[in-house]
Amino acid sequence: MKVLFAKIAVRRLFVTISVVAIIELMTGPAGSNSAPVSGFKGSFVESSSFFGLFRAQRWIVFFGLALIAWVVASFWINQGTQIRSRVRQVIAVPRKATEKSFVRRGALAALLFVAIILPHVETAPFWQAAMVEQIAVYVLLAIGLNVVVGFAGLLDLGFVAFYAIGAYTTAWVTGALPTPALFHHPLNPFWAIPIAIAIVMAAGVLLGAPTLRLRGDYLAIVTLGFGEIVTIFANNLYGITGGSLGTKQIPHPSLDVGPIKYHWGITPVPYYYLTLVFVVLFIIVFSLLERSRVGRSWTAIREDEVAAESVGINPLKYKVMAFAIGAASAGFAGVITASQLFFIFPSSFTLLFSINILVLVILGGMGSIAGVVLGAVLIQTASSYLLHSPPSGYQSQDLYMYLGALLIVMMIFRPAGLIPSRRRKREIMLAEVDHEGHLDEVLGGDDL
Amino acid sequence: MSDKIFDVDAVSLRFGGVVSLNDVSLHQNRGEILAVIGPNGAGKTSLFNSLTGVYQPQEGTITFFGRDGKPMSIIGRKPHRVANAGVARTFQASRMFSAMTTFENVKIGAESHHGIGVVGAMLRGPATRRDEKRSDARTNELLRFVGLVEKANTISASLSYGDRRRLEIARGLATDPEVLLLDEPAAGTNPSEKVELANLIRRVRDDMGVTILLIEHDMKLVMSLAERLYVLNFGSVIAEGSPEEIRANPAVIEAYLGSTEEAGSK
Questions:
Q1: A310 contacts in B (CB within 8 Å)?
Q2: How many domains are there within chain B?
């Protein structure tokens, strides 16, 4: 027995079967008070389909899946490096092409075109609404958080606060709060956009100036607190925010400047285009910023704060700037949400929401705008799909379980995200190398 | 009295009960290559950190005479303000922005005295582009000066020790300093790199007119390079003078060098 277990392949099989048994339990039927072990029993004996090929008891199906996973994993572990290098050879030519700026611009233009015609291709009301509420808004939030987490390297666990402030500012400006409107005269939500962005940026400075002196874990804890404080204020300041019942109805935005007259109605598509315009604007501004002196200073602070100070960079100033700039897009996302959904409630601005945005950024690739946009689009599309047509046995609260599993897998196999930022990838590699070790080997693969 | 650049007066620095610097007084003249030597734990790096605003000594004053010769107190100022006033430094265990290229490392230094201009950076206006061009040119110039042009696009983490020192010196010079503080520049370098380094340091002073303050363990290097030395031991200055005077000073020999033989072999 001991000899058998010493074999790594056998141990791997054992681990695979254990993991699969846990998955069986998690996805199986729930027990009840009267029959507490029925969930446990049901997880293994209930019948289930094997890729639609045949039906069998769950334990047989899952055992089969475990064997397949084991074979694939063993194959990958033995042959993985060769396969990877072969794949790298094959994609070398198309990869080289992506470095040419006209190819990149062409691809971006094509993507923008797809984004523009999308609402005309997908006309189902559910998906049109999801495009705004579930995808575009999350893309905005992800690119904003990316400035803070990805560029400046500050872990912000309370990003939802800026989104909430943006949304409540919209309600305030339009007179939808119990408290009098900002200018004692309700404004149209369209004019809430600049006001909300300004207020949210100011909130970023106010939160950032005292707290960004802290480093690492301490900062994360403080931002966590800030996120909670905003939600609790929204919930408890009944006379100002409307409390847990939420706001009064927020009107739809409309634009009436000279010859340009437009009214955003109840249908989501116009909001989609409004958001798209701002997404493109924010992407352009953020990527220019990344490649500017400001972006380089953020990188310097992230990599070595002491060295950055020694060349005259004021870390606090740049960190506060990252907070305020990142918050701007969250503020705008708040305006869109508030004006499209009529009402806002404190219960939509939770810690889980902040975590969700952070997951999009991490999965997509911290510090890479293309990465976080892709991450946000993919994850949010998938979760909308699960909401729209849940597979049997799926419950909406399971989402975070699967996201968590995905996160674990990604961190093992692709820690720098779907589309990694080059510099971030290098930083992760350097951190893994035991200082001097085989540095050239690691850096050799990175064609600069 | 000659033109001073640093005037350190009765500085004491304590960490809890540990006295790191004890009533240290010293000064440096403009254009001088000054060395601070002493055994490990003598307080050399603490002195550097006090001179650059990283540590805040509890007693005494440190005055820096900047570009216009106006006195400025270092104590109480943040490191980045000290750096902007004209004090550049390198670190004992070299601190680079490791995932950046050599060029980018130096460029960050060169950019430090341009205005921030977030809006300019967002819109990439003409002023931003002009600044950028200027710092690119300055970076290239400095890479040529320290001899790292061929390695401009190398990731700095894969540079040799010798090259890292050059990079740090170039990055420090990029900030247009009045004085450059070098914390053990020769540590980890081989003999031929040491000779080149000594030449480079001399050129920094002669060609760029930057005052040099250095901490070094390598006696040969220090004695050939420095015009004047201070010897620290247990946080106090125990001797001051020219290399010849220091070599002959019995207190120094006893406290630090142990024996003249060891000094020769180091």
A1: 52, 79, 83, 88-89, 91, 95, 172
A2: 1
